[in-house]
Amino acid sequence: MKFAVIVFPGSNCDADMANALRDVCHCAVELVPATATTLTGYDAVVLPGGFSYGDYLRSGAIARFAPVMAAVQAFATAGKPVVGICNGFQILTEAGLLPGALRANRSSQFICQASRLHVCNPHTQFTTAYAKQPDIQLPIAHGEGNYYCDAATLADLREHQQIVFEYVDNPNGSVANIAGIVNRQGNVLGMMPHPERAVEQLLGSIDGLGLFTSLIENHREETHV
Amino acid sequence: MYLVKVTVTYKESILDPKGEAINDALQRLGYHNVQSVELGKYFELQVAKSDRPIAEQVNEMCDRLLANVNMETYHYEITEMRTQA
């Protein structure tokens, strides 16, 4: 399975993501600059965390119009897996690939800590490995992770099981404790916590590994059918 | 040439923690009659005339980039600038 990790000016979790995918999960990974115009040849695309374009205007607002984003849109529309972590989640909401928006944390503070999460939907291609272990702990590190959507959108998310990760102790004020969601089709995932920072015992937790192994395993099954 | 002044603020239903922090600071300074503070963004654009109606273009730019209409609202003021002969 071959991953593209998109590198925007100001991305800073791209190397961690490449480490998780290449060194820990033994997948092919390429760092793809935001100026790229095609994503042909990749099986999955990851938008990593960071502060793309300095978070100017709003987090993700400028990155959403980077040249590569037309290819990301097409990739997502084709039903292929797209994962946005932290700033990547913010970019996906700005791009309209996921509903809602990320506001400043309720406390006005940048929060960097371990966060307990509940995997509410272990049936997505990103979460099957968590079926037997739905309670996990992943690092969060964000100033604008306070998920917002209106009541109609929230009802819609619930109806279609699109809420994938929930905070156990809501750290940032997110609506309905939401930490991560998928789109209706289930191929685009956005989440504020950082699974790529929890893939080796050395890092203090391996709870993030399940996300990558789920994706890899489900892709393997799909291509062998 | 037009001068376009755009103000973007959170929708009323959206909490504004930065505005609240500023309000707290004003209270600490003794301005107890301050009832609320809302922090927004202000943009000034100079836009050359084109075939398109200016208001239509400004609306589009606000919807696409300057505001996130999921959580923000905007208003603007358009004035024609006097160009030097």
Automatic annotation (TrEMBL), chain A:
Catalyzed chemical reaction(s): N(2)-formyl-N(1)-(5-phospho-beta-D-ribosyl)glycinamide + L-glutamine + ATP + H2O = 2-formamido-N(1)-(5-O-phospho-beta-D-ribosyl)acetamidine + L-glutamate + ADP + phosphate + H(+); L-glutamine + H2O = L-glutamate + NH4(+)
Coiled coil (residue ranges): none
Catalytic residues (UniProt): 86, 194, 196
Compartments where found: Cytoplasm
Keywords associated with the record: ATP-binding, Cytoplasm, Glutamine amidotransferase, Hydrolase, Ligase, Nucleotide-binding, Purine biosynthesis
PROSITE patterns registered for this protein in UniProt: GATASE_TYPE_1
SUPFAM superfamilies cross-referenced by the UniProt entry: Class I glutamine amidotransferase-like (SSF52317)
Keyword Manganese: no
GO molecular function: glutaminase activity; phosphoribosylformylglycinamidine synthase activity
TM segment ranges: none
SUBUNIT field: Part of the FGAM synthase complex composed of 1 PurL, 1 PurQ and 2 PurS subunits.
Protein name: Phosphoribosylformylglycinamidine synthase subunit PurQ
Organism from which the protein derives: Levilactobacillus angrenensis
The gene coding this protein: purQ
TrEMBL record, chain B:
Domain of life: Bacteria
Pathway, per record: Purine metabolism; IMP biosynthesis via de novo pathway; 5-amino-1-(5-phospho-D-ribosyl)imidazole from N(2)-formyl-N(1)-(5-phospho-D-ribosyl)glycinamide: step 1/2
Listed GO MF terms: phosphoribosylformylglycinamidine synthase activity
Keyword ATP-binding among UniProt keywords: yes
Listed EC numbers: 6.3.5.3
Matching InterPro entries: PurS, PurS-like_sf
Principal place of residence: cytoplasm
Pfam families: PurS
EC class of the enzyme, as a word: ligase
Cell compartment(s), UniProt: Cytoplasm
Reaction catalyzed: N(2)-formyl-N(1)-(5-phospho-beta-D-ribosyl)glycinamide + L-glutamine + ATP + H2O = 2-formamido-N(1)-(5-O-phospho-beta-D-ribosyl)acetamidine + L-glutamate + ADP + phosphate + H(+)
Record keywords: ATP-binding, Cytoplasm, Ligase, Nucleotide-binding, Purine biosynthesis
Family: Belongs to the PurS family.
Cited NCBIfam families: phosphoribosylformylglycinamidine synthase subunit PurS, PRK05974.1
Its job: Part of the phosphoribosylformylglycinamidine synthase complex involved in the purines biosynthetic pathway. Catalyzes the ATP-dependent conversion of formylglycinamide ribonucleotide (FGAR) and glutamine to yield formylglycinamidine ribonucleotide (FGAM) and glutamate. The FGAM synthase complex is composed of three subunits. PurQ produces an ammonia molecule by converting glutamine to glutamate. PurL transfers the ammonia molecule to FGAR to form FGAM in an ATP-dependent manner.
Subunit structure: Part of the FGAM synthase complex composed of 1 PurL, 1 PurQ and 2 PurS subunits.
HAMAP family: PurS
Protein name stated in the entry: Phosphoribosylformylglycinamidine synthase subunit PurS
